[in-house]
């Protein structure tokens, strides 16, 4: 109830109300576009392609909020933009020139954002070619140059428009635009998932007890996610008193908060991007031996691919959690800043010993966060495998 009261108070503020309305309208535009079909597609052939348990189609359809299976103008979703953002985050770490650009403040971040847009368009264009000339080639009404070019340009433009839509929400609306677009796609799939579950229940494929256990399990998982996301280890810091001129500084106590999940959702996105790269390549030749191999051995819906995918997912998530945390939290830098300002951790000597202590604490806390992310990202695959429920969300969605 307190959440509704807060929402009601926010609605009474004109500026916030205007931002809320704008955000809702942009999400409405997104959902309308997700139902506008691409011209030149044979809908009967397309429907036949998505009949049955096709692991590749199900996987990409999950990340596009249903736009992929309907071959609409937003079929590529926002994934090229996410991939481009990840690439530039890694380049910021590995290339000094881009790292200097990121440290130039607002102007530097604007340039990186501009380069990210360019790379997004390039990646979207490549994926659109793969769809038009590979995966959906047999669904095209005509395969002449003009028809194929139209499909490629519409798909690329759809991703570019979504990227622009997300930036408009960032500037004039509430929250992160890209995250809200992803959230909108996930929510749009929920009614379909509920309907499919009810049909399976009526057919006797799944029992009522399975549904009840799944709902209880989902509630426990969501509560656990909130607790871990809010959890942090607070390292006490004491600042010594010092006199500068006629004023006295220091003497207060504070703390360094080290979050359990310091890396956020970034490791899951990194891992998914790497694991989905072979699946993306199969778009160019869906009936080749390579595609059959990937669907069987490296797909979360394959057999035994589901187990291999889950194992690789866990390993990559734990690796990227430590990697990203080490990039964002530098114990040496924190220790030097504390010593320069007269701060120290009670019972720990400044300098080398403080650095070692911070590293030890960060390593232990990060291990809990890494295991948490790995479990959350693997749960949907395991639930689908053991219960027969078609779970339309992934680790990032949770």
List keywords for this structure.
398 residues, globular, mainly alpha, 15 helices, 69% helix, 5 strands, two-stranded antiparallel ribbon, three-stranded antiparallel beta sheet
Write the layout of secondary structure elements.
Layout: H1 2-12, H2 14-33, H3 43-49, H4 55-63, H5 79-94, H6 96-102, H7 106-135, H8 145-172, H9 177-203, H10 208-230, E1 232-239, E2 242-244, E3 247-249, E4 253-259, H11 266-281, H12 289-297, H13 305-328, H14 331-340, E5 343-344, H15 352-387
Antiparallel strand pairs: 1-4, 1-5, 2-3
Helix pairs in contact: 2-8, 2-9, 5-6, 5-7, 6-7, 7-8, 8-9, 10-15, 11-13, 12-13, 13-15, 14-15
Please, could you describe this protein's structure?
The protein has 398 residues and is mainly α. 69% of the residues lie in helices and 6% in strands. It contains 15 helices and 5 strands. The strands form 2 sheets. It has a 3-stranded antiparallel beta sheet. A hairpin with a 2-residue loop joins strand 2 and strand 3. Helix 2 runs antiparallel to helix 8 (145-172). The mean pLDDT is 80.
């Amino acid at each position: 109830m307190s959440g509704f009261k807060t929402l009601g108070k926010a609605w009474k503020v004109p500026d916030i109300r205007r931002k809320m309305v704008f955000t809702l309208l942009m999400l409405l535009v997104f959902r309308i576009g997700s139902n506008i079909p691409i011209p030149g597609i044979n809908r009967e052939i397309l429907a036949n392609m998505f009949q049955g348990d096709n692991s590749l189609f199900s996987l990409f359809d999950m990340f596009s909020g249903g736009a992929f299976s309907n071959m609409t103008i937003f079929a590529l979703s926002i994934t090229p933009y996410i991939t481009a953002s990840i690439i530039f985050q890694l380049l910021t770490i590995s290339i000094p020139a881009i790292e200097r650009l990121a440290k130039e403040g607002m102007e530097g971040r604007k340039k990186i954002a501009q380069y990210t847009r360019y790379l997004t368009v390039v990646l979207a264009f490549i994926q659109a070619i793969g769809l038009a000339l590979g995966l959906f080639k047999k669904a095209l009404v005509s395969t002449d140059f003009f028809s194929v070019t139209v499909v490629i340009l519409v798909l690329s433009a759809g991703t570019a428009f979504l990227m622009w839509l997300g930036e408009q929400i960032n500037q004039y609306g509430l929250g992160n635009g890209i995250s809200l677009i992803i959230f909108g796609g996930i929510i749009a799939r929920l009614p379909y998932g509920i309907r499919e579950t009810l049909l399976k229940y009526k057919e006797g494929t799944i029992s009522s007890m399975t549904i009840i256990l799944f709902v209880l399990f989902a509630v426990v998982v969501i509560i656990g996610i909130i607790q871990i996301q809010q959890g942090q280890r607070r390292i006490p810091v004491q600042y010594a008193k010092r006199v500068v001129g006629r004023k006295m500084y220091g003497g207060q106590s504070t703390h360094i908060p080290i979050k359990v999940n310091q890396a956020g959702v970034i490791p899951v996105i990194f891992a998914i991007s790497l694991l989905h790269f072979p699946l993306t390549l199969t778009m160019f030749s869906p009936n080749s031996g390579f595609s059959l191999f990937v669907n069987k051995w490296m797909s979360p819906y394959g057999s035994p691919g589901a187990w291999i995918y889950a194992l690789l997912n866990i390993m990559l998530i734990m690796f990227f959690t430590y990697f990203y945390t080490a990039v964002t939290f530098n114990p040496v830098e924190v220790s030097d800043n504390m010593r320069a300002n007269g701060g120290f951790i009670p019972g720990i000597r400044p300098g080398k010993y403080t650095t070692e202590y911070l590293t030890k604490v960060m390593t232990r806390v990060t291990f809990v966060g890494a295991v948490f992310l790995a479990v959350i990202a693997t749960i949907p695959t395991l639930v689908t495998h053991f219960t027969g429920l078609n779970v339309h969300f992934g680790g990032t969605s949770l």
